[in-house]
Design a protein that fits this description.
Largest interface: A-B, 88 and 90 residues
Oligomer: homodimer
CATH topology of the largest domain in chain A: Molybdenum Cofactor Biosythetic Enzyme, Chain A
Strand content of chain A: 25-35%
Number of strands of chain A: 17
CATH superfamily of the largest domain in chain A: MoaB/Mog-like domain
Strand order of the largest sheet of chain A: 2-1-3-8-7-6
Order of helices and strands of chain A: EHEHEHEHEEEEHEHEEHEHEHEHHHEEEH
Mean pLDDT of chain A: 92
Largest sheet of chain A: 6 strands, mixed
Helix content of chain A: 25-40%
Structural class of chain A: alpha/beta
Radius of gyration of chain A: 29 Å
CATH class of the largest domain in chain A: Alpha Beta
Shape of chain A: elongated
Chain lengths: 413, 413
């Protein structure tokens, strides 16, 4: 079933609020086999709400409203939905009685505007709200279903889970959304798409999305299955991706790179020491984000100044004078030096020009060297990173982790 | 002007993603006097995108798209907008050339699918994207304006701020949303509200919001003004806040703490060296986020292991045995040690238990010591931080910076 979510409330259109109800609803709806294809956030404007519902009825099987069911003048969902469906609002005597009881039990007298909460769209089933005063509604209009839910998250979740979800499950049958995920490193988004598109276009039943971030590219596959059917396409496509770009995939479990690398270090009984110049702590922060990283992380040096490179990492001053602090030679010397100082089995270093200042025609902003040292020698790599200062630093951090992963893969066979 | 925002991308319709671009855009649009009345999130479905734009053109003056401008098959914004506006897409030779140059400068060869990023809707003005490859577009359709922005937040913000916002401001006339901002440290949210509420309730025309984050509390004042009217209330309220809680306010310019502290270090001609155990790089990363921080930051040591504390920071092994690595004594020894090693005027240290493991009844998870050393001696402070591992580390980082600020304030008179 194709679903869409409409959140009502001008307070959701300010710079500091976002609609979190829809995240909860999306998860529950996906699990129930419904595909959320649209979300709208609309203010307390009756014509806008009506128009959006009219559109939604044309394209979606299941339409969920959240919010706008309260007692105040700007709670317009009930009357706007009634308008779009061309049905009257009627006061429900049972609901009115119950509302009065709820107020009395809390020692309040019900004010007249609260009576609006007892208004029901003709033909709607009432969805009881045990957590608050505004009940939800379930309305069937030809082959479409419209569900009205209260806005406060606890009320919405209680009404949805107890009264809406069981009915949706009955309608959606056995259909479920299954997913597969791949985190990828070491390729650009377009290189990756060029390799994968010829494969995934042959599986039209599976939806493939490719999303590039600073840290990695994530590829996700989505497929609707019915009692397991459809899962074969998903598994087949996933294993063809594995064949094609296997080594570039670092996780199929949504694990961040630092976790994958941490597990490899532990399994291979290696220990790590780092020296970071331009990132000055970012790599260490990521490595130690993983609980238990003290098992393999010996420590690091934020060698931001030349003095720190020389005094703490043992880089010969002449090397910096001759090649510059951002160079292959200094990257390797930093890796070797910090490895020795902290008595680790592997030393990893980053030195680069994060910008905005400090670039030259020969060594532009974004130029970054990664150095690596183990017992048998030293290696280096370099790349020119795009973006601003923070983005150069992030990309450098992930390049270093990514390269360490490749190194460990080779050494672990 | 009535504005609406349309975010394109199926990845924004999963249970764990929300559209953060629209929060940024809403703030900027409000400041420019535009009222955001609708937001839509739509998947990579061409007909849906077209239909939503057709609706939007009926009700809104300004329509902003984010995302869907990349090189892959599922990047549909360009062609859907062209379809809804009934205009052709044409390949722009200048853009194509520029794209080739961008790829070449990073040592990549452009794959054919990237050429789609050089396609322009007939009659659109190109909005340059310095942070990435997909440019934005500005299209006028009768009295409506349609703006296409790239999805990655840094690219969106750069294109919007440099090329779209100046043109919107020209169109939107004299109404502005004016704001004042205060970043506050060293108080809880409720302490702060207890002090400020008696003041701000006397200014009903100004909206006051208080938002507590891990890093600091931010207080914002908002007021709609027309040619300056209303600004007096805003200024009066702001100066009464200054009187009441002055020293707790570290910025009225939305500067992060590391920038404020950096300026104070530079002005007082101090230099800084740091030793971080549980944060292992996070403090250094923040300090060096500020361009030019090499003027005062000498470097740091991620002393995650005891060996690193002893060998690199010169902490006597007996001190760790006697008091534990998380103690006032070790915090002070770390600060003094790193100050000396890196020949800085101030040493700052963090040692604590970030969790989830490693706590004890005496020293629970969240216990953090900050050490500070200058030429005349050493000091320490401790606190028990709430929250998970990452949150303990962030709070510790900001406590260290915040305490350094207070120290510099005292010493600078």
């Amino acid at each position: 079933m194709k679903a869409e979510i409409i959140a009502v409330g001008s307070e959701l259109l300010t710079p500091d609020s976002s609609d979190t109800n829809s995240l909860y609803l999306t998860q529950k709806l996906n699990e129930a086999g419904c595909d959320v294809q649209l979300k709208t956030i609309v203010g307390d404007v009756r014509e806008d709400i009506e128009e959006i519902l009219r559109q939604a009825l044309r394209r979606s099987d299941l339409i969920l409203f959240s919010g706008g069911l309260g007692p105040t003048m700007d709670d317009l969902t009930r009357s706007a939905v009634a308008g779009a469906l061309d049905r009257p609002l009627i006061k429900d005597p049972g609901l009115l009685e119950e509302l009065r009881r709820k107020f009395a039990s809390r020692g309040f007298i019900m004010s007249p505007n609260n009576e609006r909460q007892a208004e029901v769209i003709l033909g709607a089933d009432i969805l009881e709200n045990r957590m608050g005063t505004a009940p939800g509604m379930w309305i069937e209009e030809k082959d479409r279903i419209v569900i009205l839910l209260p806005g406060p998250p606890r009320e919405l979740q209680s009404v949805f889970e107890n009264h809406a979800l069981p009915r949706i499950l009955k309608k959606s049958g056995e259909t479920r959304l299954e997913t597969r995920s791949f985190f990828i490193t070491g390729m650009t988004e377009s290189e990756l798409d060029a390799q994968l598109a010829p494969i995934y276009t042959a599986y039209p039943r599976v939806r493939t999305t490719i999303l590039a971030g600073t840290r990695h590219i994530s590829v996700r596959l989505y497929c609707w299955t019915q009692q397991g059917s459809g899962r074969r396409d998903l598994d087949e496509l996933a294993s063809r991706f594995q064949e094609k770009i296997g080594p570039a995939i670092f996780s199929t479990q949504d694990e961040p790179m630092e976790e994958v690398v941490g597990r490899m270090l532990r399994e291979s009984r290696n220990t790590l020491a780092i020296a970071e110049s331009c990132t000055a702590g970012m790599l260490g922060m990521h490595v130690t984000r993983v609980p238990g990283s003290s098992d393999y992380f010996m420590g690091g040096i934020e060698c931001y100044s030349d003095a720190a490179k020389i005094d703490l990492c043992g880089v010969p001053p002449g090397l910096i004078r001759q090649h510059g602090a951002v160079s292959a030679q200094v990257a390797e010397a930093l890796a070797a030096g910090v490895r020795e100082k902290l008595r680790a089995s592997i030393g990893l270093s980053i030195t680069g020009i994060a910008g905005p200042g400090g670039g030259s025609p020969e060594k532009p902003v974004g130029l970054v060297y990664i150095g690596l040292a183990d017992g048998s020698g030293t290696l280096n790599r370099h790349r020119i990173m795009p973006g601003d200062r923070e983005s150069v630093r992030e990309r450098s951090t992930y390049l270093a982790l990514s390269w360490l992963r490749r190194f460990l893969m080779k050494n672990m066979g």
